[in-house]
User: Fold DNA polymerase III subunit epsilon from Corynebacterium deserti GIMN1.010.
Amino acid sequence: MNATPTPATSLPNFDPAKMLSFDLETTSADPFEARIVTSAMVTITAKGAEPIELLADPGVEIPEGATAIHGITTEHARANGQPHDEVLTKTITALREAWNNGLSVVVYNAPFDLTVLRTHDPSFTVDGLVYDPFNVDRFKEPYRKGKRTLTDLSAHYGVQLGNAHEATSDALAAARIAWKQLKIWPELGTMSGEELMELQAVKFYEKAISYRNYLIGQGRDASTVGTSWPVQSQGE
Assistant:
């Protein structure tokens, strides 16, 4: 489990008034194959929300299935996007700066987005607090029926989503869900950063192992079910 960030310094508590909410739209649903199409980073402080969205030319054809989700075609990305590696570098730099400034990084389904970054830059490390609204929802309300997509959770928590699968809208929705979760479960904001990271990693691991065992019991392939949070390792 990737529960412990790199620095030895202690992590601040999660404060929804001091966060950077981050979201990627990509070429694939496989984080080990996906290339970045858009990267959105919304800094939220007492000053308000400051969004930045970067469009990348992923350097490969964007599959029709991916375009159907986020609306960006290969032609549009090639004509208007920055080189993929520049967007990757700018994104990682922004996350590191956020952590250095004491902000938490909010990522909905963190093991996807953060694994994409690690796949393209193996030097990328988690250097601060990560808060994953999707993971938190699963272990805080494990028996609630229904899907847990960002659209579903936005409706459940009563927050505005905007244009689903548009990176900035998704990042803002994740931030709003995180804020609502802290209202419902204030203990998440009183835990130390290390405690909160460990809790999320342990709960993710337990859920993944349970799902693996279910698949094995059904005679199905369980090899693609990752157990590490907030970054996955290929072949783990």
